[in-house]
Amino acid sequence: MDSDIKIRAENVNFYYSETHVLKDISLDIYANQVTAIIGPSGCGKSTFIRLLNRMNDLIPGARMQGEILLDGKDIYSPRTDVVELRRRVGMVFQKPNPFPKTVFENIAYGLIINGIRDRAFIRDRVKQSLKKAAIYEEVQNRLNENALMLSGGQQQRICIARCIAVEPEVILFDEPCASLDPISTRKIEELILELKKDYTIVIVTHNMQQAARVSDFTAFLYLGEVIEFGPTSKIFTVPEKKMTEQYLAGRFG
Amino acid sequence: MDDRKMQDKSLLQNKDMLVYKTHSMKGKDISQGLGFMLLVLCTGTALVFLGSIIYFITIRGIRVISWEFITDVPRMAMMKGGVAPAIIGTFYLTLVSISFAFPLGLACAIYLTEYSPKGTIINIIRLSINNLAGVPSIVFGLFGFAVFVNAFGFGVSILSGGLTLGIMALPGIIATSQDAILAVPQSYREASLALGATHWDTIKKVVLPAALPGILTGVILNVGRVAGETAPILFTAATFYTRGFPHSIFSEVMALPYHIYALMTEGTHPEVQTQIAYGCALILLCLVLSVSAIAIILRQRQRKMYGQ
To answer: A87 — contact with chain B (CB < 8 Å)?
Structure first.
């Protein structure tokens, strides 16, 4: 097993006001690997992944206990710069959410808010990001079009390019293919496999086959608890827990 | 997406009509039919009122309207000449009220939607702002007189009147701006924050640009509404007659709504001056309607931007 741990969650508990959503979750996420989080709807997958870049901070009445360490540093310590954290830990959402701006402006946005003014540099980085997100050829002549005019699958790759542009270390995918057709889904999956060379990837999915196709490690969550966590090859062939086996066989969920 | 919704809707309507036709004898359907008729009747009545206002004002006003009427100053004790100073006066008052109410209202709306902590105090503030919209316009006039004319010493002037109108437009501008800001999908905010943008960057570069058409629509409609008001400018800005055009924001001005009021109440030759009043009313109506038209166009553009 690769010993290079990028993110470590230790005894994480999370509450939406009185509801106990995540129960004592401990999980290691390895650098340059794809970690999939699977489980039935409502098991806390999305809640967990949104803790990793503190997106849940926005929810009033939410409470978190435990530690999440990024490169060994607690991201929930009062000294953490949340803005910097979110630049380092990027996120691609369930529904493609490009801004109602041009394709170019969408990708350049992250650079501009981070204070980069050099136009040539921005142009270059936009191009590189689009290439990395495997969307450049499709949009190279449409950079000044409104990104909302693109197809859903293209929009999602634009969002991935937008995320890559600020050079994060980790990319969180929150059910990135939930609203996409099979062909777009395949493109995104191929892209994820390509991206893991440069980034640490965490993907939430309730598509078990997708987890099997793209991930190196899989965590199975059920009702807010980690039932089983390990190498994907092992989880999908010889799971240790009976519940994991039943879920993967489609007995529930 | 909207298209599909519309289609669904029309399908639904067709189905209803089908049911109505085939089983029209049943008691249930008769009552539905009556209800439907009643609604059509009420809508029709409202349209008749709107239509007849426009019709009468146009018919009576169009007689006196000429190039001279729009561009010339009043002559011979309001019997001849034009009402250009009143048009210009209304324009200046509107300009001052926008430049005052737009930034202030927008800032309030941003604070209330994006920053204010949730709680009782904020709810009281919201409620107060809404109630401000219900204050009678003459009360705003008195307030403007006490504060801007006297306390601040601006005198009876464009500045005093514009500020009074601005305060009157403020609650509406805050309310519509809040709605426009809240209508910006949360997913845009999340996308921006997830890229390492600060809250302020997100507001400035994502939320406001997306909400701007809605905000502008609100500003235009509310300023358009108060621009036609008489009471707020009665003691703060308006005067019956000026020889020429205003030369600074401290000048008192003629304004269209007040000019109508003055002609109808203080005129010495009602048979001529009533006609002039209708002419003014027509111009005022045209101004307010064209302002609304601009607002509608802006709203359409916003819908287009979201690909709806």
So the answer is: yes
